[in-house]
Amino acid sequence: MIIMTILTVDHVQKSFNGRRVLKDISFQIDQGEIVGIIGQNGAGKSTLIKIINQLLPADQGKITYFGQAKIDRAQFGVMSQRSMVIPRVTVAEMIQFTQDYFSQPLAYQELVSLSGLQAFQKTKVSQLSGGQRQRLSFALALTGNPKLIFLDEPTVGMDVNSRREFWQLVHTLRDQGKSFVITNHYLQEIEDYADRLLILHQGLIQFDGTMAQLRAQHRTTTVSFVSDLPAEKLRQLPGISNLTITGTKITFTANDMAPVYRFIDQYHDQIQGLNISDDSLETLFVQMTGDQKEEHHE
Fold first, then answer.
1. How far apart are CA 264 and CA 172, in angstroms?
2. What are the DSSP E strand ranges found in the chain?
3. Taking CA atoms, which of 3, 199, 206, 283 is between 20 and 30 Å from 191?
4. What is the C-alpha to C-alpha distance for residues 22 and 14, in angstroms, rounded to an integer?
């Protein structure tokens, strides 16, 4: 099977008021993959997406779409929290209105079925819940039957079941050959559902690869347990970081588990509730970027 390259970003740069937001960005997106783009607030994610969608010019570099310089709008869909919706019209009218923009749109019933809006076709957009509006935005993004869909915070306002159903649908469409680019503050969703990660930091792509490759490059493990052991014994362990002690709950990360295992074996009778796990995308992202804002300690 020949894999088609849908989008190529080649040495793109962008500055605002003398500040370089994007320094030298290069990557490509192929048919049938889900790519998550993550970065700190202000890292340039929105700027990059606008440049890709030709809503903003790049200062340098070039972008090609199926090998061409000109974008075919029907081939690119955008699901955004700022997606255009008209509050006073019904769901059916909004979808049909959007279909008129395309010469070969997806069939109305297919769009309604894909977005799970069968029961809301006669409901005014203004009466939809947040999650239902997100479903409508997804239907509008699919209307032109695009090959690449941009998803900006796609599951905001959805409940747990709706989120799971949404990502199952995205994976089904991916398996049919569609590609997706995700920007999302829910890093766990990107970790769970993206095939590939792009980590944007200080105007550069610091990482481009799979979650498994990211873990292999930044090999750390999170260890937690309950113990009355003195903090000094823990601080003497080589290769540990991010040590947190809350009462008797102890958590740290380790880049070499051999001394940790020896420590656990030595003090096993003083350790309870031991948990050892690979680091999450959020933890690795914080380690790479120093962005403590991404952590949430209640």
1. 44
2. 5-16, 19-30, 34-39, 60-65, 76-79, 148-152, 179-183, 196-201, 204-209, 221-226, 240-246, 249-254, 272-278
3. 3
4. 5
- Sketch out the chain's domains with CATH numbers: 5-215 (3.40.50.300), 220-278 (3.30.70.260)
3-state class percentages of the chain: helix first, strand second, coil last, to nearest 5: 35, 30, 35
Q: At what angle do helices 130-142 and 108-115 cross, to 10 degrees?
A: 140
* Rounded Cα–Cα distance for residues 144 and 93 (Å): 16
Q: At what angle do helices 108-115 and 91-99 cross, to 10 degrees?
A: 130
Strand, helix or coil at 28? strand
**Cα 98 from Cα 96, distance rounded (Å):** 5
Handedness of CA 62, 63, 66, 68 (dihedral sign): negative
| Segment 276-290, tens digit of pLDDT | 988 889 888 887 887
CA separation, residue 143 to residues 82, 83, 115, 201, 248 (Å) = 17, 13, 11, 33, 55
In the chain, how long is the greatest CA-to-CA distance? 71
Per-residue pLDDT of 38-95, as tens digits, reads 998 888 898 999 999 999 999 999 999 999 988 888 899 999 876 667 888 999 999 9
Residues 218 and 35: beta-carbon distance below 8 Å: no
Strand partners, 245: 250
CA dihedral sign of residues 83, 86, 87, 93: negative
Q: Which residue is it, tokens 């199926």?
A: 66
